[in-house]
Write a structure and sequence with these properties.
It is a single chain. With 351 residues, this protein is mainly alpha-helical. The chain has a domain at 1-100: Serine Threonine Protein Phosphatase 5, Tetratricopeptide repeat (Alpha Horseshoe). Helices cover 46% and strands 0% of the residues. α14 (223-230) packs parallel to α16 and α19 runs antiparallel to α20 (325-332). It is elongated.
């Protein structure tokens, strides 16, 4: 049986089963595969894809293979093994001459990139121990191996990559998002803390829409991540995005009261900064039925409770319009709230 398998796999790229397998995988990039347009999917590719280490060794001992040969989607055998998580095959390939660890598929991802993105810690370790590895290679979307690991929450892999001497941890992807920003956005506090311990990581970096790591963590309600970032000395907590929204505004808008309290405890946070639509944190809280945040904000000494948005609506107007009775009562306790202030459509809180 093994002899028959080896005979088939030796000429697997010319066999119809190779085309069928690669077509089922879905990596043919819409090309019509056949005898005149081969898939390039050799027996070695097949063993790497399926994780059959023993047969892969037998194939390597049969003849000289081009370990850098790519299939129709740009995958080398080692790319398939790393992508699928077969560490034994990856190790076997690295013991051979001719393996290129930095080879990229059609998306620009390397074996290290795929292993980091999928959480294959053993494979990451194996690849990084190879002397010719470049750990900062970015794929077609500008994502490095470190960014993939940070984005997907693989803390141990982040640590392994950071311990490699040739890593630049602040490289951003095509959307301007760094590994720190992705970790904060997705709530991975351990990774955020690990990255902020480095001097070459910038905590105030912004993506293409002007969002900082703190901004994303505040909007998504990751209170532990917000705490970690705020404890970093170089953080600017009032950085507004391209729509004028600060971390405080985003936390208030999304009902994250604990984060609102945490931000208001800082002297460098301005509670009255409004978005480009003119809405303040208090305005958003009042309009969203969040009485607790309205109470916290209205009791803040620096809050101006009657700031109008571009439609002329005050926080009281939003609270009254949405039936937020407790917020209305809280706002009316302040003497600097205008009861009859009309918006641009002549609507008052009472109307």
């Amino acid at each position: 049986m093994n002899t028959l398998a080896l005979r088939l796999l030796d000429r697997f790229d010319k066999h119809v089963s190779s085309v069928i397998l690669l077509t089922c995988i879905g990596n043919n990039q819409d090309r019509v595969l056949g005898p005149s347009n081969p898939a390039g999917f050799t027996g070695l590719h097949g063993c790497a894809y399926l994780g059959i280490a023993e047969i892969a060794v037998c194939l390597l001992n049969m003849k000289e293979w081009d370990l850098g040969a790519t299939d129709v989607a740009g995958n080398t055998p080692i790319l398939w093994a790393a992508k699928r998580g077969y560490d034994a095959i990856v190790k076997t390939f690295f013991e051979r001459v001719g393996v290129t660890p930095n080879t990229m598929d059609q998306t620009g991802q390397t074996p290290l990139s795929w292993a980091a993105a999928n959480g294959y810690q053993d494979i990451v370790q194996i690849i990084l121990e190879h002397g010719d590895v470049t750990p900062d290679i970015a794929d077609g979307g500008g994502r490095t191996q470190l960014l993939w690991a940070a984005r997907n929450g693989y803390q141990d892999i982040v640590q392994i990559i950071l311990e490699h001497g040739d890593v630049t941890p602040d490289i951003a992807d095509g959307g301007g998002r760094t590994p720190l920003l992705w970790a904060a956005r997705n709530g991975y506090g351990g990774i955020v803390e690990m990255l902020l311990e480095r001097l070459d990581v910038t905590p105030n970096t912004t993506d293409q829409v002007g969002r900082t790591p703190l901004s994303w963590a505040a909007e998504n309600g990751y209170q532990d991540v917000v705490k970690i970032i705020l404890e970093h000395g170089d953080v600017t907590p009032d950085t507004a995005d391209k729509d004028g929204r600060t971390p405080l505004l985003l936390a208030a808008r999304n009902g994250h009261g604990g984060i609102v309290v945490m931000l208001l405890e800082r002297e460098d946070v301005t509670p009255n900064i409004a978005s480009h639509g003119g809405r303040t944190p208090l305005s958003w809280a009042a309009g969203n039925w969040d009485w607790g945040i309205v109470k916290v904000l209205s009791e803040e000494g620096d809050v101006t409770p009657d700031i109008r948005d571009k439609n002329g609506r005050t926080p009281l107007s939003w609270a009254a319009g949405n039936g937020n009775e407790r917020a209305v009562q809280t706002l009316l306790r302040r003497r600097d709230v205008a009861l009859n202030g009309a918006d641009k459509h002549e609507r008052t809180p009472l109307s």
